[in-house]
């Protein structure tokens, strides 16, 4: 694309690289041609919004640390103090509306409540978004996608807004990762990069429940590992971000062990440092998280022909014994609410089900008593939690696994009702999840019942022309 000239060129801001070097920018799109011709990384162009009293994210010396970010004013105070001066009136109204929707709605529906930890999406992500234009774009895109899900109109203005903001967020993430390769990132830039990926992945989940090839997660696996192996203590922001991203990697590994990308040291960091985040955000105790990770890692080695069947069983059998002997009452929980124990039980049975499916996913039919017992326990645990409870949405993944592992029509119907309720109360579509369940149930009806019909075949198989990472949150 040719660079713009005349009055338009003078109005548009220069690219980040040219501004730093104090030189004239030709304002070419998507990248300044001056930077390209000199072999430099063009840092792109700032948003058309201008936020007063916000320091530039380009200076290492001016970066606020995580403690400063947590002290930022929230809610109405933040929104009123960050004036969007350079936006057209209609755009300014939309941006403010999207920001308000993120803070008042999305930040409410995503985490489980707990008095011990702050709401991470409000306390960590939102302040970072006010420091970085790219992350702000990602937040706006997620809000627009969430609002679009509530708008039945085919021409909803939120469709274009979600795509626009998302593309800008991708460009910002690409710029950060290029900078990491060239000169490295400082602490705050690392947090912003991880927050960008987390927000983009949640956008995928909100949109369709699929993340194509897991590109977002793969792109920052090295960064999470580097943070996890540092000797010095990490900020609560980084602990939250690494924990959430590692959980998503575990989820995609659940659908196909060969997809597991984050290394053991990252999962160990989450087990030791992110245990409270795991429970309050997901509902999964760190012990269960660790055993699922060990099982999937073993399954991955088998899939890659690094171990044989006998070695695979030798590694998995002790995990199965540990899971069955695991005592719910010997684990620490965020508070005394019984729902935490019910969630823990559901995740324990989910872990047992996954181990029973390794290494041969076809071997044990759903009619097997071991499978039926796990499914019934998950459904019984969820049935003890009122659907109006904030804890109920945390049963989404265990409910999906139970639904995918049952041949009982009434159990399948119960799972469908629960998933539909969670979809309505959170505003997330979960279309990918429902399609996976339906295709598995349809194929199971055609089966003679002597072998399993694994849902993994529809997420991670050599027969698939296109594979996606199915993520539920």
Blueprint of the fold:
Blueprint: H1 6-11, H2 16-21, H3 33-37, H4 66-70, H5 75-81, H6 89-109, H7 120-129, H8 133-149, H9 157-182, H10 187-207, E1 210-212, H11 215-228, H12 236-255, H13 264-273, H14 275-282, H15 286-303, H16 309-325, H17 338-356, H18 369-383, H19 396-404, H20 409-426, H21 431-446, E2 468-470
Antiparallel strand pairs: 1-2
Helix pairs in contact: 6-8, 7-8, 8-9, 8-10, 9-10, 10-11, 10-12, 11-12, 11-13, 12-13, 12-14, 12-15, 13-15, 15-16, 15-17, 16-17, 17-18, 17-19, 18-19, 19-20
Description of the molecule:
The protein is mostly helical. Among the domains are: 1-44, no CATH class; 46-52 and 63-210, no CATH class; 362-458, no CATH class. The chain is 61% helix and 1% strand. The protein has helices at residues 6-11, 16-21, 33-37, 66-70, 75-81, 89-109, 120-129, 133-149, 157-182, 187-207, 215-228, 236-255, 264-273, 275-282, 286-303, 309-325, 338-356, 369-383, 396-404, 409-426, 431-446, and strands spanning 210-212, 468-470. It has a two-stranded antiparallel sheet. α10 runs parallel beside α12 (236-255) and α11 crosses α12 (236-255). The longest helix has 26 residues, at 157-182. Mean pLDDT is 83; it is low at 1-11 and 47-90. This is Zn(2)-C6 fungal-type domain-containing protein. It comes from Lentithecium fluviatile CBS 122367. Residues 14-42 form the Zn(2)-C6 fungal-type domain.
């Amino acid at each position: 694309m040719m660079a713009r000239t005349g009055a338009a060129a003078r109005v548009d801001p220069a690219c980040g690289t040219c501004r730093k070097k104090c030189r004239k920018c030709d304002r070419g799109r998507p990248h300044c041609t001056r930077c390209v011709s000199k072999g430099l990384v063009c840092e792109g162009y700032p948003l058309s919004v201008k936020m007063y009293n916000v320091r530039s994210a380009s200076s290492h010396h001016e970066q606020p640390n995580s403690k400063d970010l947590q002290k930022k004013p929230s809610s109405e105070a933040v929104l009123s103090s960050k004036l969007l001066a350079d936006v057209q009136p209609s755009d300014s109204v939309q941006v403010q509306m999207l920001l308000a929707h993120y803070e008042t709605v999305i930040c409410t529906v995503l985490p489980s409540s707990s008095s011990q930890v702050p709401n991470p999406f409000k306390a960590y992500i939102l302040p970072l978004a006010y420091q970085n234009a790219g992350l702000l774009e990602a937040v706006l895109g997620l809000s627009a996608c969430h609002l679009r899900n509530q708008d039945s109109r085919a021409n909803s203005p939120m469709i274009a807004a979600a795509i626009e903001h998302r593309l800008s967020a991708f460009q910002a993430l690409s710029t950060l990762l290029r900078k990491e390769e060239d000169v490295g990132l400082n602490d705050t830039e690392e947090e912003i990069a991880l927050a960008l990926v987390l927000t983009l992945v949640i956008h995928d989940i909100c949109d369709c429940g699929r993340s194509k090839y897991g590109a977002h997660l793969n792109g920052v696996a090295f960064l999470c590992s580097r943070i996890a192996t540092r000797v010095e203590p990490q900020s609560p922001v980084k602990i939250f971000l690494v924990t959430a991203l590692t959980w998503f990697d575990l989820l995609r590994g659940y659908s196909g062990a060969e997809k597991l990308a984050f290394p053991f040291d990252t999962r160990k960091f989450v087990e030791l440092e992110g245990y409270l985040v795991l429970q309050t955000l997901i509902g999964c105790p760190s012990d269960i998280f660790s055993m699922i990770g060990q099982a999937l890692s073993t399954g991955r080695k088998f899939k890659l022909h690094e171990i044989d069947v006998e070695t695979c069983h030798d590694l998995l059998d002790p995990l199965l014994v540990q899971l069955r002997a695991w005592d719910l009452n010997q684990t620490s929980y965020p508070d005394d609410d019984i729902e935490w124990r019910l969630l823990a039980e559901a995740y324990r049975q989910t872990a047992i089900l996954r181990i029973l499916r390794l290494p041969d996913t076809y071997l044990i039919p759903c009619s097997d008593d071991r499978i039926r017992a796990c499914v019934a326990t998950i459904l019984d645990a969820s049935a003890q939690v009122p659907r109006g409870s904030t804890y109920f949405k945390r049963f989404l993944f265990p409910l999906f696994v139970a639904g995918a592992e049952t041949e009982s029509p009434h159990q399948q119907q119960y799972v469908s009702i629960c998933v539909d309720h969670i979809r309505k109360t959170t505003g997330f579509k979960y279309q990918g999840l429902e399609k996976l369940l339906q295709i598995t149930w349809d194929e199971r009806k055609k089966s003679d019942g002597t072998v399993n019909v694994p849902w993994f075949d529809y997420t991670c198989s050599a027969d698939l022309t296109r594979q996606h990472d199915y993520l539920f949150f």
